[in-house]
Fold this protein.
Amino acid sequence: MEEFRKFLERKAQKTNVRVLGKIIAWEEEEVNIPKAPTEFLDMYYLGEKPSGVVILEASVARELEERLKMLEERVQKLKHTNDILKAILIGLAVIIFVLLSKIFGG
């Protein structure tokens, strides 16, 4: 969720924003862009089905590439943490086994 928030903040920086008291207004240039480049994001975030071939703008492709790299890095960190937790769990199991064998075996 944090990555999506950063994605939105990055996109919002490119938009002109005016603050008028308690009102926030932004200006968008009206550009006739075909739906295809944004169709992928609609499909991903809104659950819509693609209409066949999906064409991405270069900026969307870069955003997706950055997000995938960030997710891959996070997966690697989580795998490392998981390995450490497995080692701790095995160590604790061995300690418990040794303690129980000394209590009930001796």
